[in-house]
Amino acid sequence: MTSPYPMFSILGMLFGALTIAAGLIWLERRLLALWQDRYGPNRVGPFGLLQVVADGVKIFMKEDWIPPFADKPVFILAPAIIMLTALLSFAVLPVAPGIIISDLNIGLLFVLALSSLGVYSVVLAGWSSNNKYALLGGMRAAAQMISYEVFMGLSLMGVVLQAGSFSLPAIVDAQRELWFVIPQFLGFVLFLIAGLAETRRTPFDLPEAESELVAGYHSEYSGMKFGMFFVGEYLGVTLISAMITVLFFGGWLGPILPPIVWFLLKTLFFISCFILVRASLPRPRFDRLMSWGWKVMLPLALANLIVTGALVLAWR
Amino acid sequence: MSMEVTVATVHVDGKSYQMNAEENLLHGCLSAGLNLPYFCWHPALGSVGACRQCAVKQFKDEQDTHGKIVMACMTPAAEGTRIAIHDPETVAFRAAIIEGLMLNHPHDCPVCDEGGECHLQDMTVMTGHDYRRYEFDKRTFRNQNLGPLVNHEMNRCIQCYRCVRYYREYAGGRDLNAFALRNTVFFGREADGVLENEFSGNLVEICPTGVFTDKTLKRHYTRKWDQQFAPSICVHCGLGCNTDVGEHSGTVRRILNRYNHDVNGYFLCDRGRFGYEFVNSDHRIREPLFKGKVVSADTASRQLRDTLTFGKAIGIGSPRASLESNFALRTLVGPERFYSGVADSEAKLVALAIDMLRHGPMRTPTLHEVEACDAVFVLGEDVTNVAPRMALALRQSVRQQPIEIAKALKIPLWMDHGVRDAIQDKKGPLYLATPYATRLDEIATATFHAAPDEIARLGFAVAHALDPQAPSRGDFPLAGEIARALTHARKPLVIAGPSCNSEAIMQAAANVAMAAGAQLMFTAPECNAVGAILMGSNPLSAAFQAVADGEADTLIILENDLYRRAPRADVDALLHATAHVIVLDHLVNPTSEQAELVLPSGTFAESDGTYISCEGRAQRFFQVFVPPIPIQASWRWLGQGAWERLDEVLTAMATALPHLAPARDAAPPATFRMTGAKVPRSPHRSSGRTAVLANINVSEPKPPDDPDSPLAFSMEGASTHPPGALIPFVWSPGWNSIQATNTYQQEIGGPLHGGDPGVRMFESAPSNDQSYFSSIPSAFEQREGEWLLVPMYYIFGSDELSLSAPGIAELATTPHVAVNADDFTEGEEVDVHCGGSTFRVPVCIRPDLPRGVAGLPAGVPPIAGLGLPAWGMIVRIP
Amino acid sequence: MISILKTIWYVFLHTFQKRITVQYPEEKPYLAPRYRGRIILSRDPDGGERCVACYLCAVACPVSCIALQATEDEHGRRYPEFFRINFSRCIYCGYCEEACPTYAIQLTPDFEMGEFHRQNLVYEKDDLLINGPGKYPGYNFWRVAGVQIGGKDKGQAEHEAAPVDVHSLLP
């Protein structure tokens, strides 16, 4: 079901993803302000919408400084990786019927694979900065990623079992009767948590934990390189929200409104949830994070998989 | 101290301390580093037990828990004494005492110059008295005008009596006293007027609060914490008293005493304390001048180099310039073209003194040891006016013999009024042979006022009376008495010097010292006279000759006004005959006015260097602040880039002149660090750093570097007490006043931790082949129509630099001629003809002058440079 | 687990609460008199300069942004010859006001001091001195201090007895 005009889709997806990621900068600040009884950026343009443009101009004008002690090639490469992996994942995302760049039959695995690759960016950034705080941030990111990657994949296997396909449009189609959030509620919760961890957002922002590690893996970054980490993070948020929509909430499915609007609305809702979580929750201690991942989430994901598998077998 | 110290174990608050058993408990507690408040006690003044502030509880033995309150300053530190400082009852007692002392103390701290370095503030905090309950009317007093140096604000007095004890009993002043009674006791003069004593400035430090404050500081007031300090050496006489110089915003604000156990101890003279203001004078040379026009430092340096390249240059050194500057000039022009900066006769006398001290057999004592000498014979020196701080030491030395009475009565020597009551007015032997009456005459056993030759003859006679082998001419009834006094003394001392310009007097003094086995001390005319002569140079007259002979056409004059060294006509001729005259100096003077090139040289406050005092002690003074750009140390100007740092000059000097090598050790080198850091010049509370220069530029400049010394122009650095030579200011937690000196001493009143600053250049080696000097002058004979004009020294006026300090200048003597004759009337104007010059001055009748002898104030322009004593005529104006 | 959800819920409820942001500069906030803004030097009730140049504000200042030089008039009244505050360094901590023994230096509820050039943030005495007693009316240091100034002789301050006649020995 690949689009007849691939270039159109690619450009549209790229533009859409980046616009949403940029808009998130504004949205996050406004929502955080809302939940903290403030206004947030409201001076530049209507509702402060042009704040994004102002920030963009600012960040482009800033000195792009590479510390003399840094490993220069790796230091430059690191922020590019996160952008690259995040954007590539959008290739398999079904926005609406026919609006997809590439309908891979292993779309879900592709997304999981790329999100695993994304951690290289953080680890390499921490390593190449040649700074103890950055290195600690990178190490944490690696550890966190390994721990949460495992049950992230496992939590989705229930969905795959039920849909019988790794293809994302196929999974959406499989939800015409019932959104997978109902039968796979546990899988949804696990994926939501893993997704938060995957995007390194509060409460799982230990790699950059500003109260202990200055700014973690991107302590030494400035200018647009820092901006790329930032955009990469928002792309990740968008992607995970979109994946939740696709995997558990029926993707573009919905009455009356056109499918793309449904998809965007659902995605936006989960993005807002991400921001709400950031507004509410404190950061756990690192050892707690690790033991939570291995001792609670992983067994739960396994249990979910076994139960789902058993039920699916029994059903047949 | 060579004295054996008996040690007693004293238990304080359950801990045992080793204390000096000959001292009192307060002394012992403070020496042990314990904080015990006090007011009336002072290490130099002893105990009187008047203020009751140092109360402690004494216990009979280990079982005694009740104890009794005693005054620590009045209780001997006997073996096994048990006391408590932190006993609740004594704490309350001390708080009650200070509350009583503070009843009438005004609400003045913000406008009081003592604030921030006030012993009363420190003690109030120490005792914990923080709330004033007294609500009734406070007693007030009217202040007195005590002259241009000391300010009086009597309301602040807490009646500790330290001022009058110091002023009357220690310094021998008469015009400060306690008046009225009970709680209205007033300390001041009978009427307004200048404090007569030459050591009145010490009241500023003696007074525990702000009754007596520094009036020169008041004119440009800055708190202690805002001043930038550096350890320095007084430049106003040859004794080498140690000072701390305080600076702020490019002006020197004041001089504080810097404790040096061997030299000045706790006190300075007024010339030393208040003479600093010449540094801020309008007559300072602040820019290089070439042919009267201001030029840049680079141009001036190039000009100096060019003149040296193309001209035949000779250099004239200076007795008031540092060793380093003299050495730099000597190196620049070459040793054979380097000439002494003092008149030949004076140079010869200083050289003679050095020779005698160096080769013995007489030892020169330190100034501190002078205080312990018990019989003193002074030949030809007006000590109070030539080497003032030594006069204060002599005032203590006359107590040495009578103190034996107190010792016999078993009165501890620290019990000041007990000792004073026991000895009453008795004075030990002090014999003064001077041309005119001096301030010390009042404590002298006998005085002898005569012409210099007669003084020398008396000296020879005394030596003869002591040892018949010593030659003598003439018969002096006093000689036998002096000889007996010196024989019976345990530590006899003979003091002489170049003041009378008489070799015979100094030789006579040496004879006396040799015959009596006494110590011998010579005064020195200027702060580095000994160092300059020790360096070795051609005589000054040879410089005049060299120019006259055409051997030299360029003259480099280092920190020297030649008009003070030679008669006016000679100097005029010299400067006229020289094609290029280059002068390095601080102040505009007649010599610098005639120079082709004038280079602004840094004063003691703006440069580093070493002086050698009359005792032969090499002492380092350190730059206090960085002066505006063209001003720099003379040795930097003259070094012409050969040396970047002081230590390089010192190393070069030690190589070129090995006998001056010990001077390098006068202070630690610039690489010295404490806990890895330099010694800060500013107190750690120094304020206003980001605002004081903000009117010029809001971005603060980097603090200047100091390549020359281990001190930093900063408040940051080592926070521990530095070694003696590097103490910029005294401060300890809880001790903001100068009483913090206590914490820098090994024992209260003893040497500083790490030794006292300075290196003695010569400890005389005993030699047996010393023979008596035998060139005895013939008796003085009056001449008809002619007078022997002798120099009369004035503490305020005879010193060149301090004359530019407004406070000193106000008190300075004016040109006059002193005679003892019936045919002149006081104040009458006369013409004095001497050595080809004539000047018109008023007459001052001095009955103490011998017949045929007239006195002229030494060093006072235009009399300076005459080469006194000399015969001259005093002619009435028809 | 429940507490985490509760937290999220309570935070979400803030969506419906009033915002506390004051829309400065259209809307001016209320600043209490003790607000620590621009520093001024005040005068005593008689109109004289209150500052006695005691340097306590300078030494209390943690960023050392106050510099002054004391001087005296011909009657002994001490005042600052210059008084300079480098507001580009000032952190408005108010220690100077706490240290001031005469209520001369005071912080005011004015913070609108923005400048394009740092140099313009250096305020001299002319810029600092106001024509009134500021927050503390009535206090006059010289009325309680013991030193004599023009218009106040010895013994004329509050709670002061007439000067002692030192030549009297009457009990």
Describe what you observe in this structure.
- The complex is a heterotrimer of chains A (316), B (878) and C (171).
- Chain A has 316 residues and is mostly helical.
- Chain A is built from eleven helices and no strands.
- Chain A has helices spanning 6-35, 51-61, 72-89, 107-128, 132-163, 168-173, 185-198, 210-213, 223-248, 259-280, 286-315.
- In chain A, α1 (6-35) crosses α9, α3 (72-89) packs parallel to α9 and α5 (132-163) packs antiparallel against α7 (185-198).
- The longest helix of chain A has 32 residues, at 132-163.
- The two termini of chain A are 28 Å apart.
- The model of chain A has no long low-confidence stretch (mean pLDDT 85).
- Chain B has four domains: 7-102, Roll (Ubiquitin-like (UB roll)), CATH 3.10.20; 289-342 and 531-696 and 703-759, Rossmann fold (3-Layer(aba) Sandwich), CATH 3.40.50; 347-525, Dimethylsulfoxide Reductase, domain 2, CATH 3.40.228; 787-876, Barwin-like endoglucanases (Beta Barrel), CATH 2.40.40.20.
- In chain B, 26% of the residues lie in helices and 18% in strands.
- Chain B has 25 helices and 36 strands.
- Chain B has a seven-stranded mixed sheet with strand order 15-14-25-24-23-16-17. Chain B has a six-stranded mixed sheet with strand order 32-34-33-36-31-35, with no helix packed on it. Chain B has a five-stranded mixed sheet with strand order 2-1-5-3-4, with helices on both faces.
- In chain B, a hairpin with an 8-residue loop joins β11 and β12 (242-248).
- In chain B, α16 (452-466) packs across α17 (477-488).
- With 171 residues, chain C is α+β, with helices and mostly antiparallel strands.
- Chain C has a domain at 31-140: Alpha-Beta Plaits (2-Layer Sandwich).
- Chain C contains five helices and six strands.
- In chain C, the strands form two sheets. Chain C has a three-stranded antiparallel sheet. In chain C, strands 1-4 form a two-stranded antiparallel sheet.
- In chain C, a hairpin with a 5-residue loop joins β2 and β3.
- The termini of chain C are far apart.
- Classes of the chains: A mainly alpha (316), B alpha/beta (878), C alpha+beta (171).
